[in-house]
Amino acid sequence: MIQYIDSHCHITCDRLYGRVEEILQNCRQNHVSQLLVVCCKREEFDRAWQLKQQYDFIKIAYGFYPCDTYELTEQDYEDLENLCKQNKIDVIGEIGLDYHYEDTVKEIQQQAFIRQIQLAVKYQLPFSVHMRDATLDGMTLIKKYAETPFVLHCFSGSIETAMEAIRLGGYISFAGPLTFKNARNLPAVAQSVPVERILTETDSPYLTPVPFRGKENEPMYVRYTFEKICECRNTDPAILSEQIKENYQNFIQMNDTILNK
User: Fold this and answer.
1) In terms of pTM, does the model score above 0.85?
2) Given 106, 124, 234, 242, which is the most exposed site by the fewest CB atoms within 10 A?
3) Cis (ω within 30 of 0) for the bond into 211?
4) Where does the pLDDT of residue 259 fall: very low under 50, low under 70, confident under 90, or very high at 90 and above?
5) Which residue has the higher pLDDT, 260 or 135?
């Protein structure tokens, strides 16, 4: 039986949490065996922590989304560090840089990204990266500060960026955009990156894959991104499923912490 993994979903955000039990039931019925629940607010983390006590297939990522970094206080950073100390976080994220909006303050985002990468180093945790319209700065900071595995989530960049990330110890996670008609170079990236560095995700409730584009996304739809990767690589689904399972465990457990800088 082919199993699917959603390595990045926001099921404790306000849009999805009201029907979270239904979403988890859909996971079971559609063979989604592992979830990394990504939390961008403390309330989302608290919800995820309660779910993790009930379901052994849930891991938690928590960090400060780049566009939310402008109002952070020292207490926020202390709170995040305390959760790391208490071993309540499996992954720091999603963290990174987002230069998409006109009111972006790059320096604040960069300092927040650096501080959270440093937390990942201090507490030996992997981290999940959001990087939009900021590839050069993002990769520069990763190269300078990262010492633990990371994933470029919802990857939409070039083959060159993907290969550089992999050289630094990163994973490449594909989401719904891989299935879109305007995916451009993404199928070539999915075909080219080493299979042992591929992860799958939904980024739900966003970016629902074809054929459900336009509906609210949830983890059970990760299979459509997985199937597109199989198509791009001309790969046996059973083999790829086992490989992604192994990749996910290696990422979470940090089985490959040496970065090739």
Assistant:
1) yes
2) 234
3) yes
4) low
5) 135
